[in-house]
Specification:
Elements lengths: L7 E7 L6 H9 L7 E7 L6 H11 L4 E5 L6 H10 L5 E4 L11 H10 L1
Parallel strand pairs: 1-2, 1-4, 2-3
Length: 116
């Protein structure tokens, strides 16, 4: 499926976040914006069920989520660089795989502030 480049990318790195990554992904998906955005998840070869959770979301939301799975552990710095390199937009927001957003207008508010 081909899609237009998003206006903003949300970069997420994750490793062994099975118990938290659903909340992180849901927090991004609930964002209400006047612009297009994507979620790019770089899954760092987790040893728990993190990858399976991420894969299930990527399958359900192929127009929003791009999963970058790794078979070997990159480590935090290399994984972070990797996800940033694969973001498609000029604007990047960051959400760790064990963090979550509760405000559905978070991205819109941040972009509005940047554009002032």
């Amino acid at each position: 499926m081909e899609r237009d480049d998003p206006f903003l990318s949300v970069a997420m790195i994750t490793y062994n976040h099975e118990n938290f990554v659903s909340a992180a992904i849901e927090g991004v998906l609930l964002q209400q914006t006047g612009f297009s955005f994507e979620l790019v998840i770089s899954e760092d070869g987790s040893e728990d069920g993190t990858r399976a959770v991420c894969e299930s979301y990527a399958i359900r939301y192929p127009d929003k989520i791009r999963l970058l799975p790794h078979d070997r552990r990159l480590g935090v710095v290399e994984n972070l660089n990797y996800v940033f390199e694969h973001c498609s937009s000029n604007y990047i927001a960051f959400c760790e795989g064990d963090d979550y957003w509760t405000d559905p207008l978070k991205l819109q508010k941040q972009l509005d502030f940047l554009m002032e």
